[in-house]
Specification:
By secondary structure, the chain is α/β, with parallel strands linked by helices. It has eleven helices and 13 strands. Helix 8 crosses helix 11. Bound molecules: nicotinamide-adenine-dinucleotide and uridine-5'-diphosphate-glucuronic acid.
Length: 343
């Protein structure tokens, strides 16, 4: 198959490209505004095209025409941006993504759309998140954090409606907190806002700065290793049953609170380095950390029965997910390949 991966230079994109090069089964074109995370990732079946999809749809439209499957990864995916720049999030994550779906329809191409676990919103009524039966419960409009989840939800609904009308073949995936090599970016000690939680805790461990527990750190998440998400992608790409369906990609066995995650990452860091983390663990309110308009949700573990029915299972447990991701950051930091960003 020919695959066009839009947002190829990001965390998920760069890992997916690496996986597809290793598999060697498809011809892959990657599009992004940056290829920084693709440094050292190369293969005869991969080509990178630098393009900003918001400036001109022409090059992307042409590339869509030449491919079989479009993988759409373009989005702002850091909660601090949903609070500080909600309009940018709506423009990119919704309107620009709709244009990609329209290009797929125009040229009769299959769309592989990355949505999010956040579409489920608040805690589920039946204790798990099921793709085809759980309600999607958003917070109030005055909490603009929800623009991300609402935008992704409406994008899903548009794609689904076009699927019903016979306009498009699609697969929608809802990732549950993927982590692994090339995740986000590390920040200077004491930074608030900015990247997602792993990057914050990792930065604190490396700099000795504080770890912030937002709203007491009681919120729970489940984490998925990026390599498990890659095998889920390959499973879905080749399964005819996945056409015009929505799938959770997650690992329900990794359920953990943010307070417990801070402790686990500290323990792993100390084991791997022999150093002691001497920073403070500080409780902070969501509004102080992200700004006014932030609201959190206590996520429950996903049902992955639909993906399991296709033969997929996550292979990595909670500890190995974080051991691998922390080790990757330690190696790069030691090699001088990571600089700490000021947000
Ligand atoms: P990321 O920010 O690392 O990757 C997004 C990529 O899109 C970036 O490389 C960015 O440069 C690119 N991009 C942004 N604007 C662009 C433009 N105008 N033109 C071309 N490229 C542009 O994010 P990620 O974590 O890799 O997430 C990828 C997708 O998966 C997103 O849609 C996100 O919402 C979704 N998702 C990710 C996670 C996760 O755990 N990482 C969880 C749920 C959903
Ligand atoms: C993320 C992002 O919205 C998306 O990337 C993605 O679509 C989705 O979840 C997903 O991965 O499924 P969230 O899990 O809230 O949202 O993002 P994180 O920044 O990783 O925060 C996780 C939790 O840690 C939140 O409760 C947050 O308040 C907390 N946190 C964050 C801290 O306690 N300390 C920090 O330093 C940073």
């Amino acid at each position: 198959m020919k695959l066009l991966v839009i947002g190829a230079g990001g965390f998920i994109g760069s890992n997916l490209i690496e996986h597809l090069i290793e598999e060697g089964e498809h011809e892959v074109v990657g599009v992004d505004v940056t290829d920084e995370k693709l440094d050292g990732i190369a293969g005869p079946n991969f080509r990178f095209v630098e393009a900003d999809i918001t400036i001109s749809t022409d090059p992307v439209d042409g590339l869509v025409q030449q491919t079989d499957v479009v993988v759409d990864l373009v989005a702002y995916a850091n909660p601090s941006l949903y609070v500080s720049n909600p309009l940018d999030v709506i423009r990119l994550n919704f309107f620009e993504n709709v244009k990609i779906a329209e290009a797929c329809m125009r040229h009769g191409k299959r769309l592989f759309q990355y949505s999010t676990s956040e579409v489920y919103g608040k805690r589920s009524e039946n204790g798990t998140y099921e793709e085809d039966s759980s309600s999607l419960v958003m917070g109030p409009v005055s909490k603009q954090r929800w623009v991300y989840a609402s935008g992704k939800q409406f994008l899903e609904r548009i794609i689904h409606a076009h699927g019903l009308a016979g306009d498009i073949e699609y697969t929608i995936v809802r990732p549950f907190n993927f982590v692994g090599p090339r995740f986000d970016y590390l920040v200077e000690a004491g930074t608030i806002g900015g990247p997602r939680v792993f990057a914050h805790f990792m930065s604190a461990l490396l700099t000795g700065g504080p770890m912030f527990l937002v709203d007491g750190g009681e919120q729970r998440r489940t984490f998925t290793h990026i390599k498990d998400s890659n095998t889920a992608f390959s499973t879905l790409l080749t399964a005819p049953e996945a056409i015009n369906h929505v799938y959770n990609i997650g690992n329900p066995s990794t359920d953990i609170s943010m307070r417990e995650l801070a402790a686990l990452m500290t323990e792993i860091y100390e084991e791997l380095t022999g150093d002691t983390y001497a920073g403070d663990v500080i409780e902070i309110s969501g509004e102080e950390f992200y700004g006014e308009g932030y609201e959190d949700m206590n996520r429950v573990p996903p049902s992955i029965a639909k993906l399991q029915a296709l033969g997929w299972n996550p292979a990595r447990d909670l500890r190995s997910i974080f051991e691998d991701t922390i080790q990757h950051n330690l190696d790069r930091f030691e090699a001088g390949l990571i600089s700490l960003k000021r947000v």
